[in-house]
Amino acid sequence: MSFKLGNYEIKNKLILAPMAGVSNSPFRLLAREYGAGVVYAEMVSDKGIFHQNKKTLELLYMTEEEKPCAQQIFGSDLETMVEAAMFIDKNSNCDFIDINMGCPVPKVAISAQAGAALMKDPQKIYDIVKAISEKVSKPVTVKIRSGWDDKSINAVEVAKMAEKAGAKAITIHARTRAQGYSGEPDLDIIKAVKEAVSIPVFGNGNVVDGPSAKRMLEYTGCDAVVIGRAALGNPWIFREINAYLNNEPIPERKVTEVRDLMIRHFLDLVRIKGEHIACLEMRSHGPWYLKGLTNASEVRKELSRIETKEAFLMHVNKYFDEMIKK
Ligand SMILES: Cc1cc2nc3c(=O)[nH]c(=O)nc-3n(C[C@H](O)[C@H](O)[C@H](O)COP(=O)(O)O)c2cc1C
In the structure, what pLDDT confidence band is assigned to residue 2 with cuts at 50, 70 and 90? Predict the structure, then answer.
């Protein structure tokens, strides 16, 4: 079940995806505790690091308990990408430096010509990965898409270029930039990338449970699967998929466990980011945690506009107290 990444022997085949506004320290820690073998931190901008922007630097916060953990950067300018990677190499607690070549949002892929826009220029990918790999001591990994659009599927070419330039692993989100986050991921492209390179390959796209993880692993031969949206408000997914892959009974998810984890996630956010930001972030995370629970529409509404720590704890405890009484 294990594979090697840098100096680590990763004990299972599940990875938490980098997700801006989600994959921060408290959430990564929950994912690790519940069974993610590796966690990826959300992307930070190379320019933000280069200019020592306070908010960007705060995003680099990472604890020992989360490791092994990758820090992702995005950008398109060779010089600032290298500077940012060197800064992270020296100052971040991360184990790997990941380069984003998949972000589809216009601010990144169009205005900045970064993220998925790099897929249009494999030579540039080679230059960036090579220059960074030569300057940092931590292993460099890349996260790519199938291609820019269905007329330019080039993941295999890009993967080979990245490997030649020194990348130590490749995540492939098996959709084009044009597809965004919808449509079925193309398992054949993950398989083709895996066959084309000898570094670890991680498959990504719509892994939502044990069967979908197993299908991607078996069909493509990839070394691990990267889980994004299905982990939102759902760190248990790692425990459940690990059990499924090991043919073990799926552990029960107790209602009290949902309450305790929500509260812990929130209090960790308060500690690291302060009450105001923690409340803003929990306006999304809170309702995600409650997905599928009965009679939760009222509390979901309250959490989606939560403003204080006191109110958060009051609404969550009230809801779960009533649930447990029934
Ligand atoms: C809220 C959100 C934020 C994301 N932020 C990033 C990011 O910072 N870097 C990145 O490479 N991908 C990012 N992604 C893409 C995911 O890492 C992943 O590739 C995508 O969601 C597909 O996986 P899934 O089908 O398991 O969700 C983001 C996705 C979501 C939903």
Answer: confident
Write out the two tokens for 262.
Answer: 């929500």
Which CATH number is 3-245's, of 3.30.420.270, 3.20.20.70, 3.30.420.480, 3.40.50.2000?
A: 3.20.20.70
Residue 210 in contact with ligand 1 by CB distance below 6 A: no
Q: What is the DSSP letter of 138?
A: S
Alpha carbons 181 and 122: distance in angstroms, whole number: 22
What the block records as the tokens of 45 is 């901008």
Predicted local confidence at residue 112, as pLDDT: 85
Residue 273: count other Cβ atoms within 10 Å of its Cβ: 18
What are 172's two structure tokens? Answer: 């492939």
pLDDT one-digit tens code per residue, 240-253: 999 999 999 999 99
Nearest CA to ligand 1 atom 29: 19
Residues 33-39 have a mean pLDDT of 97
